[in-house]
Amino acid sequence: MINMKNPYSYIEAEILDVIEESPTIKTFRLKPKADIGFRAGQFMDVTIPGVGEAPFTPSSNHDVKEYLDFTIMKAGRVTNLLHGMKKGEVVGLRGPYGKGYPLDIFKGKDIFIVGGGVGLAPLRALLYALFNEVDDYNKIILKYGSRSPKDIIYKSEIDTWRDRGKNVSLEVSCDTGDDTWKGNVGLVTTILKDLDINMANAVSIVCGPPIMMKFVTFKILDLGFKDTQVYLSMEKNMSCGIGKCGHCRIGPYYACKDGPVFTYDKIKDLPNIWD
Ligand SMILES: Cc1cc2nc3c(=O)[nH]c(=O)nc-3n(C[C@H](O)[C@H](O)[C@H](O)COP(=O)(O)OP(=O)(O)OC[C@H]3O[C@@H](n4cnc5c(N)ncnc54)[C@H](O)[C@@H]3O)c2cc1C
Ligand code: FES
User: Fold this and answer.
1) Distances (CA, A) of 113 to 106, 174, 179, 208, 218
2) Fold of 103-233
3) Domain 11-96 CATH class label
4) Atom of ligand 1 nearest to the CA of 237
5) Ligand 2 pocket member 241 (CB < 6 A)
6) Looking at ligand 2, which atom is closest to the CA of residue 254?
C-alpha cells in the first residue's frame, strides 16, 4: 500500500526467519506491522533504517497474508548488510510498485517459464500464483539454470513443485556439475528443446541475469514464440520506485511504473535493454 502523503515512508517488518539458500543467497521471511498486499511480479523497496534501501521482488505466495519472503543475493552495500541481519531484527518495506504478471492473460495457456540464478525469486511468486489455480492453465513448464548444484535455490521445495498438478513439469540445469549432480550440465539454453508446447496458445516468462535473458529470449524466439508472447523482468537500476527520478528509464518507459515486466515487442528496439 503506497502512502500518498509521503510515498517514501515505509512499514516496519520483523525478520521471522532467514533461510540460507546458497553461499550468496538468503531468503528473508518478514512479518510487516501492517497489511501489505502485492501481486506476483511487483517489487518493493527493502530499507535498513538509517542505512539505505534496495528493490526486491517478493518470492512468496501473494495469497499468504501472514508474511512476505524476499530472496536476496549479495551484490553490494545494502545486500551485504541485509545478509548480516538476524531473526528478530526489523527492516522497512515500501511498495508494492510496478505491474504484476498479467495472470488473466496467462489463463488457459501453456506457460513456459525460464529462470536463471536468483531470477527464480520473482518466478517462485509467479509459480505459487499459478499453483493457486493450477487447473486454469493448460501447462506449466519451468526450466531453471544454476551455476552449480550448490547455487540452486529453494532446494528443499523445488522437487515438490512437480506434485502441484498433472500439468506441471520442471527441469534444472547446472553450468557445471559435481559428483552429486545427476541432471543436465550446461547453460539453461541447452534444456530449451524437445518442448511439447502449443505455440499458438502459449506465453513465455523469463527472469535472470541480463546476459541470460538475452540469449534465452533469442532461443525462445527461434523456437517459435512471438515477441508479444515473451514476458521479461527488466530489473533496471532504480531509486525512487515511483516514476519520479528517471533512474530506471527504458526508452519512453519507467521500469518501476510501466514494468518491471515488459513483453519483448515493447522494448526490443530500444537501446541497451540487456545492460
Ligand atoms: C524490480 C527489481 C527487482 C529485484 N528483485 C531482486 C530479488 O528478488 N532478489 C535479488 O537478489 N535482487 C533483486 N534485484 C536486484 C537488487 O535490487 C540489487 O542487487 C540491489 O539493489 C543491490 O544493492 P546493493 O546496495 O547491495 O548493491 P550496490 O552497492 O548498489 O551495487 C552493487 C553492484 O550491483 C549493481 N546493481 C545495483 N542494482 C542493480 C540492479 N537493479 N540490477 C543489476 N545490477 C545492479 C551495481 O551496478 C553494482 O555493480 C531487483 C532489482 C529490481 C530493479
Ligand atoms: S526508479 Fe525513479 S523513476 Fe523509476
Assistant:
1) 12, 17, 28, 11, 15
2) Rossmann fold (3.40.50)
3) mainly beta
4) 41
5) yes
6) 4
